[in-house]
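User:
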Amino acid sequence: MPRALDPKQKFKYVLKSDQDKPANEQPAFFLRTLSGRKWREAAAINKALEAAKEGSDFEPILDQMYGLLRLGVRGWENMVDPDTEQPIPYDPASLDLLLDPAEAGELMEAIVAGQEVSLADKKNSDSPA
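Assistant: Predicted structure:
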């Protein structure tokens, strides 16, 4: 089955700002492989974000970025509400509540860069392949 169609094929990503935390406490995202069409869309959004840093309007690009993140993010772990100290259940609609634009951009880059699943990730996948 192509990786982009396999719902069990995913890889783990920890934001740079969380990498110094103990491994068992690191907030992490589980990302999926995108199809070629969605990968090109993600790459175009990344390019538009870089151009927007020069002063153009961010909002339409952010909407596109969070929308594409909702396709690429398949779950998370160790996300804790700072007010209640309770785990935040996975909900792709909440990505723009968890991530600031810089973190969302980092996650977007991770999705684009992480399209090649490592052998270690394949072994940790639920997929039998």
